[in-house]
Design brief:
Two copies of one chain form a homodimer.
Chain A lengths: L5 E5 L7 H13 L3 E6 L1 H4 L6 E5 L10 H7 L4 H10 L5 E4 L3 H12 L9 E6 L6 E4 L9 H17 L7 E5 L10 H11 L4 E6 L1 H5 L5 E3 L2 H26 L3 H20 L8 E4 L5 E3 L6 H16 L2 H11 L16
Parallel strand pairs in A: 1-2, 1-4, 2-3, 4-11, 6-9, 7-8, 7-9
Antiparallel strand pairs in A: 5-6, 5-10, 10-11
Helix pairs in contact in A: 1-11, 3-5, 4-5, 6-7, 6-12
Chain lengths: 340, 340
């Protein structure tokens, strides 16, 4: 067996409190990972077996200006966790609190990977029967064509290395399937990807995404973030409407009750805690950002995914894919003969 | 009683054929509107009562380059219909075929309203209990801040004049609720709208849109089109998942059967034919673009909405709102004293 992977976890910011994050860390430790938890020792209480708690009570999870907070608060738990990854005490980062502070601390301390324009936040969307890795869902507001191209290679390499997808089908989110459709940046990225080394399936629209047309879907951080929240909103509204209708008559009530086990099964299938959160790609190490409302199960899954990314060398594979395609920043041009 | 409104209808391009569109026109004629139908007389057959059919068999509904097709095909049905509106033979346009050719013919023949940067396509999203007018859903690919501002005024005036919404709450689709969130164009539009004359509720995210936070939601045509198709995709995928689960066991089958009437009611409530289609705003006359898969009911509703927009002077009210807010193109600056 190889050495256990060490994951640094920021325990501040979770809705259920730092003790729930620590409980998730304990679950992950049982799976063979070494976990360093940065958070308020007093709130965590008894240190769970297999977990090392570093007392770090200062939280910047709710800061409205994460970048400034990261610089001005060196003892913040997320900053200490990111520094542990940067100095090699840990191999990957899990941030249970805010995406903004995780991104800022990651950029400032772990730093961008060599040749990477911008990191991206990749979220696995648990579509029943057709899971999709969507990126960027909000690390950036605007994304140039060469950023989109890098997102495509990073997402594809991560899906192959960590999510077990063989030759992931990569699509570019656009307002039409024809290569000419999209903003100028989308159209330019399409041309690059079409000549690249990925299993590129071209532009995809929302309807085909939900029907499983691609494993990895690439978009700019603004559109991706808007899309993500719309999907959440539509799901919630529809499930509520179905529930309301199920209560609308005695007949429907009985029907709803009979269907409940099947609907619970559906809910479990689209459980957002399963994939462990969003993946922060493009730094020198992998970050995983579980949702603040997760329970210990979700936090344990986040640590699991981060550890798997380390043992599967996701960062190295992303770099190799980008290099082979000539898509690293500063690459003078595409190599004459491209080999994956 | 006022004079009947005359609506020019392009009957080419509908999935069920020109006769179905003509049948919709007949329904609309029964409601007191005068309808000119441009399409292949041979396929329409017996002319329904109250409808005037102008034989126009040439269709450019499936053209991949609508702008070029509009210029090179003066006898195309959509071009003849748009010309009828432009020369005053009709008061508004309904295009049953393709959005692209309707937009191109509208721009070329009906032309942009005075002081309007770009027309926008506004789609009423039939969210149960909280209908929303979303614009732009694809008339443009990129939208500058001053375009977004005009969309907001046009959408608000249309919702008030035609959809019966009193002082519509207008939101700006973004990746966060804070005014600082969004692309530079979204942030700049936010500032303008915050100082404007609308009932502006600020930035909205997908989750709050689906929860009814705004009556009119403004975004660029790329994001709006992507959002629209994602909403369609998520709805279809979820309804399918619920249906599949309802067939997953005998118990669930009985439950599904008992719930069916309630679910049919829900489906009727989110019937896309109800609002008649998407509204083309920003031309000198109103256009309505029903979906190609509509039945006669949807086409009749489209004609109805177009006629109502004429009798309620929607174009004039949009212009007045834009003028009062100093948001017309070429307006030197906001007037010192703004009156709605």
């Amino acid at each position: 067996m190889s050495e256990p992977v060490t994951v640094a976890v920021d325990a501040n910011g979770a809705d259920l409190g730092p003790a729930e994050v620590a409980a998730g860390a304990a679950l992950a430790a049982q799976r063979g990972h070494r976990v360093l938890v940065f958070g308020p020792a007093a709130e965590i209480g008894d240190v769970p077996a297999g977990v090392e708690v570093i007392d770090a009570p200062v939280s910047i999870a709710k800061s409205p200006e994460p970048a400034r907070a990261v610089r001005s608060t060196p003892d913040a738990s997320i900053v200490q966790a990111a520094r542990a990854v940067a100095d090699g005490s840990a191999d990957a980062l899990v941030a249970a609190g805010s995406t903004g502070s995780a991104l800022a601390a990651g950029l400032f301390h772990i730093r961008r990977g060599r040749g990477i324009h911008r990191p991206a936040l990749a979220l696995p969307i648990p579509i029943p029967g057709a899971p999709v890795l969507l990126l960027d869902v909000g690390a950036n507001v605007e994304s140039r064509a060469d950023h989109l191209v890098q997102f495509a290679y990073m997402g594809s390499a991560f899906a192959a290395a960590v999510l077990g997808v063989d030759e992931p089908r990569v699509g570019l989110l656009s307002n039409g399937e024809e290569p000419s459709k999209g903003t100028p940046d989308v159209v330019a990225a399409h041309v690059e990807l079409d000549h690249g080394t990925l299993n590129f399936v071209g532009n995809v629209e929302g309807t085909s995404v939900m029907a499983g047309a691609a494993d990895v879907v690439v978009t700019d951080g603004f559109t991706g973030n808007v899309a993500l929240k719309l999907m959440e909103g539509v799901s919630a509204a529809l499930m509520k409407a179905v529930r309301d209708q199920a209560m609308s008559s005695n007949r429907a009530k009985v029907g709803g009750a009979l269907m409940r086990p099947a609907l619970v099964e559906l809910r479990d299938e689209i459980d957002p805690e399963g994939p462990g959160g969003a993946y922060l790609l493009g730094l020198r190490r992998i970050g995983v950002v579980p949702h603040g409302r997760f329970t210990r199960t979700g936090f344990a899954n986040a640590i699991d995914v981060a550890a798997k990314a380390v043992s599967e060398q996701a960062v190295e594979r992303m770099h190799e894919a980008l290099e082979a395609a000539g898509a690293l920043r500063g690459a003078s041009e595409r190599p004459a003969s491209v080999t994956g």
